[in-house]
Amino acid sequence: MFKYNRGFTLVEVLIALLIISVGLLGVATLQVRGQQINFVSYYRTQATFLADDIMDRMQVNFIEASAGNYVLSALSNCPNPGNLSNVCDTTACSRIALRNYDLTNWCFSLQNTLPMADAIITWNPAPANEYTIEICWANILDTDKTGCGGQNKENQVWHHIAPALI
């Protein structure tokens, strides 16, 4: 006589558990990758806002900007906040003091918003009087290792944004 077995065998249960585990691992990987992409998107948006911010500041102080005085060779070359004689938000400033105030505040915002930030602002007087703003920051997804100004950054990965002001 044959005896009919009912239910599942241990092998069937283990195979089902393996299939479910692989599926859940895939879902977890998608979740992590989605968070990474969200961070990259957030940093890119912040860099765009910061580039717009310095362009707006240049447009307010047009005389200094049109003379090419908003040039910045690296974030480490920002004006020292200790050298600011007054706060241009609450008191009147000269054009030069306003430029220093703008660059100091912008550099501070950049350093506190983007990871391992760096920036270069270049000016091309001819033919269009335009500035190029290059903002770089550490990024976990890209493989481009050239920092601002083409400097090789072996230990960091960088992103670039270069809007222009005419």
**Estimated radius of gyration:** 26 Å
C-alpha termini separation: 93 Å
Supply the helix-strand structural class. Answer: alpha+beta
Strand portion: 5-15%
- Main sheet makeup: 4 strands, antiparallel
Task: Please give a handful of descriptors for the protein shown.
alpha+beta, 3 helices, about 170 residues, four-stranded antiparallel beta sheet, 4 strands, about 45% helix
Give the SSE map.
Blueprint: H1 10-60, H2 62-66, H3 95-113, E1 118-124, E2 130-138, E3 158-161, E4 164-165
Helix pairs in contact: 1-3
Give a verbal description of the structure.
Helix content is 45%, strand content 13%. The chain has 166 residues and is an alpha+beta fold. It has one domain (10-165). A hairpin with a 5-residue loop joins strand 1 (118-124) and strand 2 (130-138). Helix 1 packs antiparallel against helix 3 (95-113). It starts with 9 loop residues before the first helix and ends with a strand.
